[in-house]
Design a protein that fits this description.
Distance between the termini: 62 Å
Order of helices and strands: HHHHHHHHHHHHHHHHHH
Number of domains: 1
Pfam family, one: ADP_ribosyl_GH
CATH topology: ADP-ribosylglycohydrolase fold
Catalytic activity: alpha-NAD(+) + H2O = ADP-D-ribose + nicotinamide + H(+)
Number of strands: 0
CATH superfamily: ADP-ribosylation/Crystallin J1
Keywords: Hydrolase, Magnesium, Metal-binding
CATH class: Mainly Alpha
Enzyme class: hydrolase
Protein name: ADP-ribosylhydrolase ARH3
Structural class: mainly alpha
Strand content: under 5%
Length: 433
């Protein structure tokens, strides 16, 4: 029997009332739900780092049980449940978090020589060494061993184990650059780069590229990582240390979900598939000046926003009775391990919903590579929504999110790595003073 939320269920036509969500231009919607009115939560850089890393682990663990499952084939997930794919208890995070922690710890603990007094920095060889430790020894694993690893990451680590470091990097870049090697393994771990290096956009972009090249050196993976890092950096700048501006300029240049969409849409992709999925098509009408008109224009022309409008507007769409949004079909919104599918699905969840919890629940219930879509979403969304408890209530902290945190396995490990990255980011901040 199909779960009650499946596409086979009879779903009543959605009527948007009061503060209900999920609507787009063309359906009844309150002004405050528009993208141009949704702004990120200000907080310290330390808070953003801590909660983005924590969120990555929480939503990874939430999505693990839905990994490999067809959409609508499993009960709707809103809490930590056992991961029957690997016979694991609730709250266990997977390779998405482990590799994120490895990258974060490499950035904050790398030493050029064992006796070097200076700690921290970017080094692909050190990153690969930590990924190898995770694979072989269970370093930074939720259960003390590696129980799942992506194909491309596995191949890169095999090459790294057979050759000298310099030759291994060259072979990885040549042997794994094919289109068929376009998994999401480098995107799922990239968030620490934007969190640490956001003060230097060019450096962050370079490090995002090099981080991807260590295991996923093809163009679509590289550019997905560069764009994601740029988005994280933009949010960090505007929420932690916004530049001084006049009141008029502040209002015009204020970061909203609409301006973040414009950043993503205007990113200089060279990969045609990323351009087709994330930018405006050639030949559209000129961009309107007014924000309301501009937002409606994006919903008419941008492929992602058109998809949101088509799948979240009134009509007999697929949705759970307790969830205020529709869940698109697999044909409408794939959530596979292909990096393009992961990027689009994570952005769909972010731009469709208005709180961290809502987007997380949507992401994990997509199934297929649900844990990765969820963790990629979570890093970005936590950077946008998060603040300390009592300040980020409602948009980040909810009863459910507190439950997720409480039930997360080995949370102390996640928090320790996050603190290391906080310390490194503070040292970088001093260099810019």
């Amino acid at each position: 029997m199909a779960p009650f939320w499946s596409s086979k269920s009879k779903v009543k036509k959605i009527v948007v009332e009061g503060n209900s969500s999920g609507s787009a231009p063309g359906s009844p919607v309150l002004e405050q739900t528009a993208l141009r009115f949704q702004v990120p939560t200000p907080a310290s850089s330390a808070t953003k780092i801590r909660l983005s890393i924590l969120a990555t682990a929480m939503v990874d663990a939430l999505g693990g049980p839905a990994e490999f499952q067809r959409r609508f084939s499993f009960p709707f997930i809103t809490s930590m449940v056992p991961n029957n794919n690997f016979d694991l208890p609730p709250g266990v995070w997977t390779d998405d978090t482990s590799t994120t922690l490895c990258l974060a710890n490499s950035i904050s603990t790398f030493k050029e020589t064992p006796d070097s007094p200076y700690t921290g920095g970017f080094d692909e060889v050190h990153q690969l060494e930590l990924y190898k430790r995770w694979q072989k020894e269970g370093y930074l694993s939720a259960i003390g061993k590696c129980f799942d690893i992506g194909t491309n990451t596995q191949r890169a680590l095999d090459i790294f184990g057979r050759y000298s470091a310099e030759e291994a990097l060259l072979r990885i870049r040549s042997d794994l650059a094919e289109e068929k090697c376009s998994g999401n393994g480098s995107l799922m771990r990239v968030v620490p780069i934007g969190l640490a290096y956001w003060r230097d956009e060019s450096q962050a972009k370079t490090y995002a590229r090099r981080s991807s090249q260590a295991t996923h050196p093809n163009t679509i993976c590289i550019e997905a990582c560069e764009m994601w890092t740029g988005a994280i950096g933009l949010i960090m700048e505007e929420t932690t240390e916004p530049p001084p501006r006049s009141p008029e300029d502040q209002e015009e240049r204020r970061l909203t979900k609409l301006t973040l969409l414009e950043f993503i849409s205007n990113f200089p992709y060279t990969n045609n598939k990323l351009r087709e999925a994330l930018t405006l098509p050639f030949g559209v009408s000129a961009r309107p000046e007014g924000k309301a008109e501009r937002e409606a224009w994006y919903y008419r022309h941008h492929p992602l926003m058109r998809l949101i409008k088509e799948t979240q507007g009134p009509g007999p769409q697929v949705k759970d009775p307790k969830f205020p949004y529709n869940i698109p079909t697999e044909e409408q919104l794939p959530s596979s391990g292909y990096v393009l599918d992961t990027v689009v699905a994570a952005l769909y969840c972010f731009f469709t919903t208005k709180t961290f919890e809502e987007g997380a629940v949507m992401a994990i219930n997509l199934g297929d590579d649900a844990d990765t879509v969820g963790s990629v979403y979570a890093g970005l969304a936590a950077c946008w929504y998060a603040d300390k408890e009592g300040k980020g209530d409602g948009v980040f902290w909810t009863k459910k999110v507190r439950e997720w945190r409480k039930e997360l396995v080995r949370r102390n490990v996640v928090e320790e790595v996050a603190e290391n990255l906080v310390a490194w980011e503070r040292r970088l901040a001093e260099e810019y003073m």
